[in-house]
């Protein structure tokens, strides 16, 4: 476990209870990014026992289709397992059409869902597990750092500042050689694998002080975290 | 004809003698882009021996100009910096199309002159040094395939490289003089310019796809052979532009046959041909070499088939290999071994696409052979059957996507060891990036034919 430091007067953050269980989520051979991203999302949903049970009991096929590019994937729930494959399968029960580039935005367009009337329970399950609950941004940041903190090239210490209330949180240890600034929402999105750090900087959703080298390595780690690789 | 070699001592007199006012520096990026500057002669002379500064981004962006911002590397300055183009004066030539300009091929190096691991030409140098350590010298000769279209590059861009008119009869025949006659006006200028660059074309012919032709180059030392490919491709592009045409080296720009970059290579040891075997038995050197090439072929596919589009070429009965295989004079195998004549004993490696970087192709091929020597890898049996249409099970099918070949390279410690882990890791990252760009910037993974995304990204630049 990477030690966490509560510098700069930041309040302590307690670990959420973690229940380790084998994932029931599998992906196709040679998966494409959207398949990996959905798998990482569903594995995050599995941390919640109620969602894990709901996923295990679900039956049917749900497709997620991008409205802005050809990305698409089908999630197959059956026999207590989940398999994710590229494309919209012909035997899809529920189809969710969504702007994949804006799914985490506060003002994201609402997804269009077809097949929900016939498969209401499946559609509700899909809606729940594709948008799993998140902890406070500090807790999610710590989870991210457990994944990323030992990777070569990432900063030794990162000071994260929430611009909503100026709370601060330190990832890693001394020296603090990188700083990230953003709203609680955007920090939560980032640290739950919902966005890519470099893209957030380019889009002005986050700001940072530090080297390009650290920015690149952090971007790579957020990409890997997003895809669970 | 240019003098065979210019040294630092003879450089200034050479520039004087040929009235050179400008020197065009030519470095080659990982994606095979020719990168450099036009330097005034005094600036060029002053820059020696390290060469001119150039942003390290030239090795840090993808083929569409997107910066690699998902990893870093030790040779890069923390907040962008310069690297240097160290000219190889052996490659200094008078530009055939500009009276006061010389061209020179460069290695990318650090400010202290140290090699940069991600420089393709530098990588080939390191692999050649390792080969020499085993007592071998190599020679190589490439076959450059390309397709020529009657439209101008401006028109091609406007049409997003679709619906172009091949400069030939639109059918897959090949070697058809009816076609080569139509291409003659273009090829004549190409051959003339190449001659002025000191590059001899052994032969050329119409090839199987509409608008396609192949240029065969003379065997040369590996570095020179790759330099020649870089210049041949550049001249083909330039002459096409001059004549209002456009040319592509994309592995699969349309449904017909694709563009390959076959490379023949041979080894000598103390002057003796290492691949020569007068009877059906392979020489010891050939056994280990072919064993290494076969064992590392899935991983080498990453370098030989570097783009998303490369894998559309690798279909059965379309000239490109689909299984890791070798055979004596078998053109359906990945390795066509020709061992029976001492003067012509060689291996034709038929996997590389026209979109591959020649330095990386030869580095990967030689590295595979070296791995065979170092690990004493025995080859599987040769194939005597047709290497296409083989069952899915029981045959070593090659990777079918950029992500699969990347995974194969990650898994192949023997090939990575010869290539160097610094280079290999950077390359692996760039291929993951290319995969990510395809899937997240509009590429269609369900498409069964070449997509607009591929044409826009690769047609003009690979």
What is the oligomer described by this structure?
Answer: heterodimer
Order of helices and strands of chain A: EHHEEEEEHHEEEHHEH
Count the beta strands of chain B: 16
Structural class of chain B: alpha+beta
Distance between the termini of chain A: 19 Å
Q: If interface size is counted as residues with C-beta under 8 Å from the partner's C-beta, which chains form the largest one?
A: A-B, 22 and 25 residues
Outline type of chain B: globular
How far is it from the N-terminal to the C-terminal residue of chain B, by CA? 29 Å
C-alpha-based Rg of chain A, rounded = 18 Å
What is the tally of beta strands of chain A? Answer: 10
Strand proportion of chain A: 15-25%
What's the pLDDT, averaged over the residues of chain A? 91
Largest sheet of chain B: 9 strands, mixed
Order of helices and strands of chain B: HEEEHEEEEHEHHEEHEEEHHEEEHHHHH
Structural class of chain A: alpha/beta
